[in-house]
Amino acid sequence: xxxxxxxxxxxxxxxxxxxxxxxxxxxxxxxxxxxxxxxxxxxxxxxxxxxxxxxxxxxxxxxxxxxxxxxxxxxxxxxxxxxxxxxxxxxxxxxxxxxxxxxxxxxxxxxxxxxxxxxxxxxxxxxxxxxxxxxxxxxxxxxxxxxxxxxxxxxxxxxxxxxxxxxxxxxxxxxxxxxxxxxxxxxxxxxxxxxxxxxxxxxxxxxxxxxxxxxxxxxxxxxxxxxxxxxxxxxxxxxxxxxxxxxxxxxxxxxxxxxxxxxxxxxxxxxxxxxxxxxxxxxxxxxxxxxxxxxxxxxxxxxxxxxxxxxxxxxxxxxxxxxxxxxxxxxxxxxxxxxxxxxxxxxxxxxxxxxxxxxxxxxxxxxxxxxxx
Length: 373
Known about the structure:
By secondary structure, this protein is α+β, with helices and mostly antiparallel strands. The protein folds into 3 domains: 10-60 and 152-246, 2-Layer Sandwich (Gyrase A, domain 2), CATH 3.30.1360; 61-148, Aminomethyltransferase beta-barrel domains (Alpha-Beta Plaits, 2-Layer Sandwich); 292-363, Aminomethyltransferase beta-barrel domains (Elongation Factor Tu (Ef-tu), domain 3). Helices cover 22% and strands 32% of the residues. It has 9 helices and 21 strands. Strand 17 and strand 18 (334-341) form a beta hairpin. The longest helix has 14 residues, at 213-226. The chain is globular and about 65 Å long. 41% of the residues are buried.
């Protein structure tokens, strides 16, 4: 009985009570109670595109790896080249398994020469810990210290064209001077040692704040008080539509352990000049070009929205692929989607099957929309 209770236990972020007071509709997302939306996902989406929105993303995993060979270990476990970034810089990359599949995609922050912060997906926290610790136990990495701060620190994201303007009122760090995918550590909302990063999952201008749980509520409330008309709390529904307009992949849907970064259209984060797990497998896959093809597409027909699991078919209704993510784009006012083609030989016309209806799609390059930074 106790085992079942533990298995079904849903965690809460430290900001849970704030979400309830703000009227959020809460759902179980990756094992956490998270706000789906506060008002409407459409309104929240457009606020981020036109003004600013604040997200609680504290469910994300937060690891520290430090020690003399910490960079060597990360280099071996991930595909991007960590040696190319400097202290105060972040990098998008992915952990891969022995077959080249994506264990997780993550952002790595270089805090100091031998100290790295890894932000990983909430659903993969335990899996990632096991994978990384398994390699640390090997003799050459035994001096590395691994710390899981996932439940001790909060992560708050403020996104939108006005996000830096309003949050600047709470810090003396010149936010506009922080380059994209760089960060500063300093005072924010009167709290010391706050990590402020020019990163985000929406495509709009913004910052993400990494802070201890004891100070997260103060920062959350101070940001909302800066301008109640132009900054609103946003949930994961709008976060999903925002990331899809940019074509950002979601682990567990668009990417997985069965999909390589080459198949996922993420070859740009593979650096073959360094040594890493499954390097030879990925080199062979890239050379032979025998893999499913990642696509991004939109639907011109009104009120037709692709969804995860919808089939992609040819003119003869033969299945040639599948949809991994789909949503209504509030900016384009059209259905947009991501997916994979498993067979397209001789097929020029592609359709998505929605409620047994054959709906034509148009393959387009990412991102779906262009945003001025």
